TrEMBL record:
Lineage, top ranks: Eukaryota, Metazoa, Spiralia, Lophotrochozoa, Platyhelminthes
Keyword flag Calcium: no
BP GO annotations: protein O-linked glycosylation
UniProt protein name: Hexosyltransferase
Keywords, sorted A to Z: Glycosyltransferase, Golgi apparatus, Membrane, Signal-anchor, Transferase, Transmembrane, Transmembrane helix
Organism from which the protein derives: Mesocestoides corti (Flatworm)
Record's bilayer topology term: Single-pass type II membrane protein
EC number: 2.4.1.-
Length: 251
């Protein structure tokens, strides 16, 4: 990787029950992951032992995985988010100015990302909280059809009709100084399984922080050579540490 970019993969424990792509939520409704995501969840639930063994072998070989103590499923993404934030804040705080948290089915253009970060001062990098802002923030209530409940929450979980501002969880830049504050605020924010919406509530507790919309985030496959982030299926949630000390030499 150019410019001293460090890539870390974050994952939890494989789901081992037969439900696979079906989740019984505390609010009394079900979520069934449709299409490819659902079929993969069913497949790997049947191969949980193999998945765990392969992850441990890869972790031992490359030393680039954070393996958390939670079941790695769609409805536990907030646990993965919190664990990744705490790990980065604890172990990378003095090594990186900014972090890029990115989903498993997206990738980043290292040159474009570094060029963008090089255009910022060290202070600006450490204060980043940016991504592709969610414009549709209406709260969705559960349907009887479990396959339509991928983003549904009950009134008990979120009593309001709209979420606070938040960025898509697909890819988010978080500066080191901001991350330190988020980690503390997350500990005092009511858990919500929708990880990106949860981040919106966390940021709302810190009124001096605001999500910034960034150009160059492309949430669909693209050949645009200026893109920072593109949608290309990959394998795992990733945490990228971008070392501020090396950025000026990276471009």
């Amino acid at each position: 990787m150019p410019g001293r970019i460090r890539v870390v993969f974050a994952l939890g424990q494989p789901r081992a029950d037969v439900a696979g792509n079906l989740f019984h939520m505390n609010g009394g409704f079900d979520i069934r992951l449709p299409e490819k995501a659902g079929s993969k969840a069913v497949e790997w639930a049947r191969r949980a032992t193999e998945a765990r063994e392969r992850a441990l072998v890869e972790a031992d070989e490359f030393g680039d995985m954070i393996i958390g103590d939670y079941v790695d499923t769609y409805v536990n993404l907030t646990y993965k988010l919190i664990a990744s934030h705490r790990w980065a804040s604890a172990f990378c705080q003095d090594k990186s100015d900014v972090f890029l948290f990115i989903d498993d089915d997206y990738e980043f253009n290292a040159k474009n990302v570094l060029n963008y970060l090089n255009s910022l001062t060290k202070f600006e990098r450490r204060q980043l909280l940016s991504g592709s802002l969610m414009t549709w923030r209406r709260v969705i209530r559960p349907f009887k059809d479990a396959s339509r409940n991928k983003w549904a929450v009950t009134r008990y979980e979120v009593p309001w009709s709209r979420f606070p501002p938040f960025a898509w969880g697909t890819a988010t830049f978080v500066g080191a100084d901001v991350l330190r504050e988020l980690v503390v605020a997350e500990a005092y924010t009511r858990f919500l399984w929708l990880d990106d919406a949860f981040m919106g509530f966390v940021a709302a507790k810190l009124p001096h922080l605001h999500f910034q919309s960034m150009k160059g985030f492309y949430l669909e496959s693209t050949n645009n050579q200026k893109a920072l982030i593109t949608h290309i299926p990959f394998s795992r949630f990733r945490l990228i540490c971008l070392e501020g000390e090396e950025l000026s030499a990276a471009s």
